[in-house]
Structures are given as C-alpha cells and as structure tokens.
Amino acid sequence: MSFLRTTFLTAYKARMYPNYWDMLALLFVLSVITFFAFTAKQMSTPYHLGQVIPISLSPSHLPFYAARTVVRMLIALCVSLVFTFTFATWAAKSARAEKIIIPVIDVLQSVPILGFLSVTVAGFIALFPGSLLGPECAAIFVIFTSQAWNMALGFYQTVKAVPSEVQEAARLFHLSAWQRFWRIDVPYSMPSLLWNTMASMSAGWFFVVATEAITVSNQKILLPGIGSYISVAILAADLRAITYAILAMLIVILIYDQLLFRPLVAWSERFKAEHQATESEHAPESWVINLFRRTRIVRSMGAKIAQWFDRFVNIKLFRRVNSSLISHSHTLNKEKKIDLWYNVLTLMIGVLAFVFLVIYIVHNISLPEVAHVFFLGLITAFRVLILIILCSLFWVPVGIFIGLRPRAAQLAQPIAQILAAFPANLLYPFIVVFIVTYHLNPNIWLTPLMILGSQWYILFNVIAGASSLPKDLIQVADNLGVVGWLRWQRLLLPVIFPFYITGAITAAGGAWNASIVAEVASWGNQTLVATGLGAYITEYTAAGNFPRIALGIGMMCLLVLIFNRLVWRPLYAYAVDRFLLG
Questions:
Q1: Element at 520 (helix H, strand E)
Q2: What is the sign of the dihedral through the CA atoms of 279, 280, 284 and 289?
Q3: Nearest to 403 by CA among 468, 455, 458
Q4: What is the pTM of this model?
Q5: How far apart are CA 408 and CA 416, in angstroms?
Q6: What is the mean pLDDT of each run of 10 residues along the chain (582 residues)?
Q7: Which residues pair with 216 in a beta bridge?
C-alpha cells in the first residue's frame, strides 16, 4: 500500500514540475510578449505635426517595419472582434437594432478609407498632442474600418442561422442571454468567424499603404511600417525595394499563419457539430497546439484559465422578466408603441442628416458638378457589378471544392491569405508600364485592381458555408446517386447561398472602397487615372477640399445603399428564408 501511495505521489509531483516542453513554451510566450512590448513602446515616441519620419529603403529595416505593421493590424483586429461581438449580436437579437445597424454597416463598408482618414486624423492628433500615438491611433482606426464590417456581417449571419433545436435546448436549460452568447452563439459561429477574420486581416494588408502613408490636406505623415516602405519605394520607382517588401510580406503572413490562425483553425474543430466534424485523419493540426499539449505547467495554467472563464460565462446577467406575469395583450400594445416611436425617431434622424449633407454640399458645389459626380458613381458601380459577377463565377466552385475537402482547406488557407493580402500598389510598376507601353485604356485595365483584395471575401465565405455542410446530407446524396448539376442545384448551392450573399455584399463594399487606390495608379513620375468616383475622391482628399470629399463619399454611400436595398438585401432575405439549414 505504501508503495502505491509513494508511486502516486511521485507521479503527481512529476506533473507539477516543468518539463523540457514547458521551457520551450515559456520561452515562446515570453518572446511574443517582449516583441509586443518593445513595438508598443516605439509607438508612443514624441512627435510633432510636420516632423518628417525618415523611411529607409534598406532591407535591414524591414523586420522592424514589419513588426510595427503587424502590431497595428493585431490591435485593430482585437477592436474589430469587440465591435463584432457587440453590434453584430445586438443586430441578430433585436429587430429594432437590426433596422439601423445592418444598413449602417452596409454604408460604412463602402466609405473609402481616405474618407475616414480625412475626418479622424486631426482628432487623433489633437487627442495625443506631441506624441506619435495620434497618427498611430488614426492608422489603427483605419485598419479597423477595413476589418470590422466583414467580421460583423459574417457573425451576424451565423448567429441568425443557429438551428432552432439548439435555441430550444437553451430555453429548456434556462440559459441567460449572457450564457447563450458564450455557450451557443460564439461556438456555433467560430469556424465562419475565423475564415472571416483571416479575410479581414488580409484586407488590412491590402490598404496598408494608405494607412501608413497618410496624405490629407497636403500634409504627409509616414509611419514606420511596410506600407510606408512601399509608398516610398513607389515614389522612388525602386523595383528592388518593392521585391524586398513582397518577400517581407510573405514571410510575415506565413509566420502569423503558423502562430495564430493555424492553431485557431485546429482549435475551432471542437466547436463543430457532430455531423460537421472533420474526420480525425484529416483534422487540422498545429505544432503550436501540440507544443502546449506536451507541457505540464502551461497546461495546468490553461486549466485554471478555463475555470475562470467558466465563472465569467456563468454570471447571471440579462435575465428576462417572466412573461407569464404580464398580460400578453398589454405587452403587445407596449411593443407596438415602442416600435412606432423608434421608427419615427430613426426616420427623423435620417432625414435631418440627409438635409444637413444636402445643404452643406449645395452651398459649396454647383448642381452640374453633383450630376457629374453621380455619373462618375454609375461608372464605378458598373465596374463593381461586372467584377462581382466574374469573381462569383470563378470562386464559388473553387470555394465549394475547398470547403468539402479538409485537406485542401489546410493547403489553401495560407495561400489564400497571401494572395488576399497582396496590396494593389505592388502591381503598379507592372500595370503602369504595361498600359503605357501598349497604349491601353486605363478605364479598362485599371479596373481589375478594384477587386484584387475584396474578391477573397467571396471565397472565404463560400469555404465557410461548404465546410458547414452536414456530412449525413452528403452521404444521402451519394446513396441516392445525386450527381452533376442536380447535386449543385439541390444540395451545394442552397447550402452556401446565404454565406455567398454575405461574402458578395462585403466584396462589393470592398470593391467600392478599393476604387480609391485602383482608379489612380502611380509609378515614379507616371500617373494613370481612370474615370470614376474613386479617382474623384482621391484627387480632392489629397487637395484637402472637404466639400468635394463629402460629396464623393456621400454619393458613394447613396449608391451603395440603393444597390444593397434593391439587390443584396432581398437576395439575403430570400436565402435565409428558403435555404438556411436548421
């Protein structure tokens, strides 16, 4: 008996002592913390408006620039996640909030990042006088605007799609709204949220030049980062520096794919329903997760964190009032009155904002110019529509193929991230030289740059939709011999259609946003300009002409809102009502 007790105590103590894997894991964690601490300290150095921050094209500076860019993007990603969890959940749970939040997101995702910069950069600089934190916060905010809308729309769509039987189980267990969010909404949405997060991270890379090389009112601020490095290289027409920037981007994307997204994708497998779970031999793996699983102390710390999280989740918040204590008719009448006043107030605010914008524009701009800007908007709208159709025809089959094959998804994940993160500015040397050499029309050949970054929203959302397809439905279709076009018509397209609509809405908004960098291409002293609303906004943003900036942004928002209301939202409602599983 004493021997067994001694053996048990020895084994117990052994589990409490660190092993070699603990040392390696702790070294890894401390390195990451040190990296963030050092980079964050550099972001708060003294700075005065007009001060020139030198950007060196030497490749030895690229690791430091890459670190600054990645920290900005990760901070923006965390803020985007908080925004997503707050407002997307609110819109999914409240019909009143949905009427405002979703249209606002539709509009905001189409607002050019130069529009956000022109409005916010002065405020952030005034908020942190004499510090680089002002321009840094402005850059982080703009990166946030390139990430948050896609994540919010994707999370909203999956929360709305939680199966009815799961919601009924939550009611039977008397889960509070807080518990339901953490126990049902977040786990069910996790696979889709991860793919949209990867797409959003790549979108941040796409606009990294505009966010780190800020030009507003003829004032240029260069923040240390890969984006400003690319901007200086383009101005100097240094093709070698552009090549170094491309290599640095590829290395950085592969690093954070291995350290962040690959572990998250492998971890998210536990949140899939049984009929969606990947077979064990094809399940995603991560060497980071395997490392932590082999540790002793780190695993013990993880168990403690899990216990604290359980206590955090099980806080009884947002309990509903027992409806049986209140008259049903009284409650119904009260809800109708609240809805009426809510709709009236919303309409009044919208009308007042519209009237204010119209008065501001009319007092500063002539009506013929307003008509001309509307015509420019129609040209850009036609480009966006054609590009969305072409990308859908290509990426929907590809996304379904990848989503149904876990091994293909593992291979495609880093490749898609790299391609999605490729800034359009890096193609300017080749595009400009190609157009000038062969005397081509910029209105046609600059157009593909608009969809270069946003097309991946379609791919990532279709992959998320295809990966959610229950395996038993696939087996039933195989047993019944449903193949060819019938399989696509009856099984595959209906399942991915709601996800595709979400991706198409975001891709269209991203294409509108990208028009500001796609309709004006520069390389050295050569500049090509395509006719369109994006070029108009870019021109007057650089000049600091705020009435015309407001006109261009307002016209873009109006056209996007009309297009969403007439096309995308009816399609989304049809997809949810007709095809959504559960």
A1: strand 520-523
A2: positive
A3: 468
A4: 0.76
A5: 12
A6: 51 57 73 75 76 86 88 91 93 84 79 70 80 86 87 87 82 84 88 82 76 69 86 84 87 84 80 55 69 76 82 70 48 63 69 73 79 92 92 92 82 72 67 80 85 82 83 82 84 86 84 82 78 87 78 84 81 72 48
A7: 219
